[in-house]
Design a protein that fits this description.
The complex is a heterotrimer of chains A (291), B (767) and C (182). In chain A, 35% of the residues lie in helices and 25% in strands. Chain A is of the alpha+beta class and 291 residues long. Chain A has 3 domains: 47 residues, Uridine Diphospho-n-acetylenolpyruvylglucosamine Reductase, domain 2; 116 residues, Uridine Diphospho-n-acetylenolpyruvylglucosamine Reductase, domain 3 (2-Layer Sandwich); 113 residues, CO dehydrogenase flavoprotein, C-terminal domain (Enolase-like, domain 1, 2-Layer Sandwich), CATH 3.30.390.50. Chain A has a 5-stranded antiparallel beta sheet. Chain C has 2 domains: 77 residues, Roll (Ubiquitin-like (UB roll)); 80 residues, Orthogonal Bundle (DNA polymerase, domain 1), CATH 1.10.150. In chain C, helix 2 packs across helix 5 and helix 3 runs parallel beside helix 5. Classes of the chains: A alpha+beta (291), B alpha+beta (767), C alpha+beta (182). Chains in contact: A-B, A-C, B-C.
């Protein structure tokens, strides 16, 4: 690996300064499971690595029925899925946080890092999108909020400007009759990058028979995770039944624009988007009915 | 013959020690992290070596400029093929040997695969060594990539080697005649018996299929690692993770043009080999860097280098035509087998040809096998080399043939099973091997007839046969210790528990308990010449050597007892661990008692022996898998797995079970998940354990084992080899299981979810 | 030459300090700087688990942690699993169940399994398989590893502590075999 300067600031302002000074020649170290592997693989050359694990705002989370979830960007996945309140209120997020790469990876990997890494296959990204998550960003020019579906701009690229740091992710308080689910398809049973993944959320009416609104997001089938807007819009007003699931899953396939690569073919991926979206919707609906 | 499927029992019960389950003597070091593997030593002053590898799959090397790398602070030496004496002295001999190995270790005129080593540096840290690699300028003339056998065998294909001409032979092991044809086919072996065309005429059902398998890697978790220290004007010592220390010594000496007596190879513990570490890559390079720098050199491969720079097993294309009468008698079998050798000749094609249907008595057989070079890494052995690929084809075809005939798959196999004296296609008659017995045990096993219990489920069965010679030579030395224990030194690298299995044979011979034998695997200075660990021969060959040494110990100690009892040596018997005077049976010494008297009766007892007779013999293994396929995603869930093996006599049953379960796991990975992905330019795109997908603990259930003991008459205790057989049958057994689950045969490996979805689509389209 | 950073940390209950470059992983530091070679490198990119250690109470792949991050942290490696009184029940169970063949993955498995059994000593087969999915083994097929972890869990559940390895020649269990004549 190349040489680099290592710094570990204990407050956000210093971190922003340290990042801004070096622009694209600085990177954040949170869990390290992406950035260290990429540096070793020569994917980029940097001058400075900024460890954010000592910055309080990035390393804590608060979760309540009233205020929703504000998740520090550097909180590791294991803390997310072990927390009982998050388990109860955000099972869709627990789905994705608990799937990534094995217990050892989950002891370090972060949802914030997964989002900033902006891989088309990033497992947490679809589940964040369907839960209307917002990225809270701080930089030299102050703070801004970015809806997660607008955060990734290309494979491995995000919209952060020089010096900007993802501080936290906010997911709104879950409403009644709401449910979300994420799942992915991999060739083994763990440790793989998704061939395709899908997340769905639905909000049902009080009768629990009709969908008020919903969101679908799919991954590994385009240059970024795709928020399937048209398919999502189709959910509004429909009956929460198999026919709707079938129709919306079919529509979701149209939003996919995958490539052929060693992990999957175009045909296989589009097919899987249909299958996974159906399954995600079914579970989202049953969670909405329970909750 | 005995069968055991209960984990906590002794097997045949014939022996006191063999068949029991003592804790292995090297176990405590391994569970505490104290055991030292290839990368676990660092001598004072060690420098770190790294290798520059070709980015091109096929290119001529015009020039290499290392000057900038040499100037980097921290770099202490660089090396290229110019530094390997054998390359300067001799022309490349594609038939094999140290000159060929040297060319693979540091390319001289041509690179033949992406990852082919071209230069090396030694520096004060591995990071600096890596930086130095970027400063080496290699001028390549890039040539067209000949990626696989299809491109290699086309008319007008680019030739990898200007002087490679096709050899044709009609007998295994024969040099064959040189056809003079220049091509990428290095050899064509044709074995036949009877008249296949006549045989097909007699058949009521004939099946023709083409099977294709992918390039796979052995997947040992420990990358290659060694440390070389070449004392100026003195000896060269290399600590290394290898399957054969004497092979490395001979190879290194030849490549460096120094006497073998000036080379010492010290085996470290090995973190997996499976045949792949029977070839070395780093030792001569580390040695040269040590000579040039005056320091010890440590070289450890990265995982990427393991994939791109060491030998995988062959991808293959095998067509089968097989015919049988209504009653199931197979009347003819014809195969065309193409094996990819990679950059240089030497695929395991011969293994595939000789094993494909050798468990069966078939009167009319014609098998053509081709060894084809292409721009992939030079293949290396992988556990029963060549056998899994040909078994995938043969056993899938036989399974489908059973369906065509309306016969039970095991009944079809039993109908045609070879018996003692029947000849295989090699012309060699079968010895006393329990082929029929193993098949009967499989058929009678509860797994074979248990209800499948659901839709989208299938059960697959297959057998795998391997015949080994062994006999490449093993040495053993036993020293008696005054407290009644013995030390056992061998040169047989312990891949998997052979150390304890050999120690148990000594314990059995000497009437001791397993923990009274302390085995060590030692360096090339400290034990007699010993062939490499592989070919399922170690427990057999080295066991026989150790048993012979044990007999010498008994003889010598008997003579001491005779001296004490004032009788002749022939008046002393050794039974059940006790020396008894036949002239007066009240005079007895236990081994322990007599051991305590050796120093006062003439001195220590130390005995060495060698065995090279061979005869490890053939053995049959088999697998049954139950799978469930998700028809929407193509995902395969393995519900149940049983593996069978005839081991002759289990030395340590737990380690025999371990071989069976491990081979099954590798076979599952080969069947379902693993493959090398290449770009058209021959660049591997998945050279990491993320995308080269080896099964995890979550990917399969418990693997039930059935040990069958049909003793091998060539071993004093009846042992056969176990190391390789278990990897053969899982490939066809899994293909048969999936094929039956979805009602469509899978002819290409790996059987991926995507290929299953395609097969389901095609199946539905036909309806 | 790269500047080195001075790090103070606790490894296996012992205060340790070392110098390392920022680019050296914790795995490199353990093996190459501190000479603790029990933790193994299999892939260097978080895909095999051979380098598993405890880092502040959680198992991590030490190849994906920087050495400098150890500052102020608590680390446990395979060398710290046994105690002066003897082997940990997991180590004992691995030996008794023959849950290792070449042994290179064994340190990673033992450290990973230890962290599971400390939280859930009655973890069942499915849970154990899930927890250990990040540890690759190529020799055993995982069967005996799972059995060893189950066995160790029983011992730990009953409050068993460090034990000495004893050879268990012959097991002494009942023979249940079918004998066929040759």
């Amino acid at each position: 690996m190349q040489e680099f300067e290592y710094v570990a600031p204990n407050n956000l302002e210093d971190a922003i300064k340290l990042m801004a000074e070096k622009g694209p020649k600085a990177k954040i170290l949170a869990g390290g499971t992406d950035v260290l592997v990429q540096m070793r693989g020569g994917r980029f050359q940097i001058d400075r690595l900024v460890n954010v694990n000592n910055i309080p705002e990035l390393n804590q989370f608060s979760c309540s029925e009233a205020d929703g979830l504000t998740l520090g960007a550097a909180v590791p996945c294991c803390e997310i899925y072990e927390d009982q309140t998050i388990q109860k209120l955000y099972p869709g997020l627990v789905d994705s946080a608990s799937l990534i790469g094995g217990i050892q990876i989950q002891g370090r990997a972060t949802v914030g890092g997964n989002l900033c890494n902006a891989a088309p296959s990033g497992d947490n990204i679809p589940s964040l999108i369907v839960q209307e998550a917002v990225a809270i960003v701080a930089g030299p020019n102050g703070r801004r909020n970015i809806p997660v579906e607008e955060f990734c701009s290309g494979p491995g690229r995000n919209v952060l400007q020089d010096g900007e740091i993802l501080v936290a992710i906010h997911i709104p308080a879950p409403k009644a009759n709401y449910g979300a689910h994420f799942l992915r398809f991999i060739p083994r049973n763990e440790m793989d990058i998704a061939v395709a993944n899908s997340a769905a959320s639905v909000l049902l009416d009080d009768s629990k028979q009709h969908i008020v609104s919903g969101r679908i997001a799919i991954g590994s089938v385009g240059p970024t995770v795709i928020f399937a807007k048209d398919a999502s819009a189709l959910l509004a007003g429909k009956e929460a039944n198999e026919a709707t699931i079938e129709e919306v899953a079919e529509a979701t396939k149209k939003a996919a624009s995958p490539i052929n690569d060693m992990r999957g073919t175009i045909d296989q991926r589009i097919h899987l988007v249909g299958v996974l979206t159906k399954r995600a919707l079914r579970t989202a609906i049953s969670r909405a009915r329970e909750g | 013959m005995t069968i055991t499927s209960d984990k906590d029992t002794a097997t045949s019960g014939k022996y006191k020690v063999l068949g029991t389950r003592p804790i292995r003597q090297d176990g405590i070091e391994k569970v505490t992290g104290a055991a030292r593997y290839g990368a676990d030593i660092t001598l004072p002053g060690t420098l770190h070596g790294k290798i520059l590898r070709s980015p091109h799959a096929h290119a001529r090397i015009r020039s290499i400029d290392t000057s900038k790398a040499e100037a980097l602070p921290g770099v202490m030496a660089v090396a290229t093929s110019k530094d390997l004496p054998i390359i300067q002295d001799r022309e490349l001999n594609l038939a094999g040997g140290p000159r060929l190995f040297a060319e693979n270790d540091l390319a001289d005129k041509k690179v033949l695969y992406k990852g082919h080593a071209v230069a090396a540096v030694a520096a004060t840290s591995p990071h600096i060594a890596e930086e130095a690699l970027d400063l080496i300028a290699v001028d390549y003339e890039v040539l067209p990539t000949v990626l696989g056998w299809r491109e290699a065998m086309k008319d007008g294909a680019t030739l990898l080697h200007d002087n490679l001409t096709e050899k044709f032979s009609e007998a295994r092991g024969a040099a064959g005649e040189d056809t003079g044809t220049k091509s990428n086919i290095s050899s064509h072996l044709q074995l036949k018996m009877g008249d296949v065309e006549q045989g097909f005429k007699e058949a009521d059902s004939v099946l023709e299929r083409e099977y294709n398998t992918q390039t796979v890697h052995q997947g040992y978790i420990e990358p290659f690692a060694c440390t070389a220290q070449w004392i100026p004007e003195g000896r060269l010592t290399i600590w290394t993770s290898t399957q054969g220390i004497f092979g490395v010594r001979g190879n290194v000496a030849a490549i460096l043009d120094i006497p073998e007596s000036m080379v010492k190879i010290v085996p470290m513990e090995i973190g997996g080999g499976f045949g792949g570490k029977g070839t070395g890559y780093l030792e001569p390079v580390a040695a040269i860097l040590s000579k040039k720098s005056g320091h010890p050199i440590k070289m450890v491969m990265s995982r990427k280098e393991v994939f791109e720079g060491t030998g995988p097993s062959s991808g293959t294309s095998i067509t089968v035509k097989i015919g049988a009468k209504k009653d199931g008698t197979i009347t003819a079998a014809k195969f065309n087998m193409i094996y990819e050798a990679g950059a240089y000749p030497g695929s395991p094609m011969v293994g595939g040809v000789t094993s494909a249907v050798s468990a069966y008595k078939i009167d009319n057989i014609l098998i053509d096998g081709y060894d084809v070079v292409c721009n992939k890494p030079k293949t290396a052995a992988y556990r029963a080399p060549g056998h899994p690929q040909s078994a995938f084809a043969a056993e899938s075809a036989i399974d489908e043939l059973a369906d065509m005939l309306g016969m039970d798959p095991m009944d079809l196999r039993l109908k045609n099973v070879a018996m003692e004296g029947d000849r295989a296609v090699t012309g060699v008659p079968h010895a006393h091997v329990g082929l029929k017995e193993v098949m009967e045990v499989m058929k009678a096993h509860p797994h074979y007839t248990a209800p499948l219990g659901g839709p989208n489920r299938g059960r697959g069965v297959a057998i795998g046969y391997r015949l080994n010679g062994g006999g490449s030579g093993s040495s053993a030395t036993i020293n008696v210790i005054a407290n009644g224990t013995v030390s056992l030194t061998t040169g047989s690298i312990d891949l998997s528990g052979t150390r304890v299995a050999i120690a148990m044979q000594v314990a059995e011979a000497l009437g001791l308990s397993a923990e009274d034998v302390t085995p060590q695997v030692v360096d090339t200075d400290s034990v007699g010449w010993t062939g490499g660990s592989g070919g399922s021969r170690i427990t057999f060959d080295t066991g026989r050597a150790a048993i012979a040494a044990s007999q010498l110990v008994i003889d010598q100690m008997g003579a001491r007892a005779a001296r004490l009892w004032e009788v002749q040596p022939e008046d002393v018997e050794f039974t059940d661990g006790t020396f008894i005077c036949t002239k007066n049976t009240n005079d007895q010494f236990s081994f322990k008692e007599l051991a305590g008297k050796l120093m006062t009766t003439g001195g220590p007892v130390t005995c060495s022996a060698m065995d090279s007779q061979g005869g490890v013999g053939g053995a049959l293994a088999g697998n049954i898998f139950d799978v469930e396929v998700d028809p929407e995603t193509g995902k395969v869930d393995i519900l149940r797995s049983t593996v069978f093996l005839d081991i002759g006599q289990a030395a340590h049953p737990a380690y025999v079970e371990g071989q069976m379960q491990g081979g099954t796991l590798q076979g599952i990975g080969w069947a379902l998940n693993e493959e090398y992905f290449f770009t058209d330019e021959g660049v591997m795109t998945n050279s990491s354990l993320l995308d080269y997908r080896m099964p995890t603990s979550l990917d399969l259930p418990m693997i039930d084992t059935v040990i069958i003991e049909y003793p091998n008459p060539r071993h004093p205790y009846g042992l056969r080899g176990a190391g390789e057989h278990p990897i053969i049958a899982p490939l066809p057994a899994m293909a048969n299981a999936v094929g039956r689950a979805i009602g469509s045969r899978m002819l290409t490996l790996p059987i991926t979810p995507g290929s299953i979805i395609e097969a389901i689509k095609e199946r539905d389209a036909k309806k | 030459m790269a500047d080195k950073i001075h790090v103070n940390t606790t490894i296996n209950d012992t205060e340790v300090d070392f110098l390392c470059e920022s680019r050296q992983s914790l795995l490199e530091v353990l093996r190459d700087v501190l000479g603790m070679t029990g933790t193994k490198e299999g892939c260097n990119d978080g895909n095999c688990g051979a380098c598993t250690v405890y880092f502040d109470g959680r198992i991590v792949d030490s190849c994906c942690v920087l050495g400098v991050e150890a500052q102020g942290s608590t680390i446990l490696t395979i060398e710290g699993v046994a105690s002066p009184d003897g082997l940990h029940p997991l180590q004992q169970a691995f030996l008794e169940e023959a849950a290792l063949q070449c042994g290179i993955c064994t340190p990673g498995f033992i450290v990973a399994a230890k962290s599971l059994l400390e939280r859930e000593p009655d973890a069942d087969e499915a849970r154990i398989r899930h927890w250990l999915a990040g540890n690759l083994c190529r020799c055993t097929g995982y069967d005996k590893i799972i059995r060893a972890v189950l066995k160790a869990g029983e011992v730990m559940n009953q409050g068993g502590d460090a034990r000495k390895a004893t050879t268990a020649a012959g097991a002494g269990a009942t023979d249940q075999r079918d004998v066929y004549n040759d």
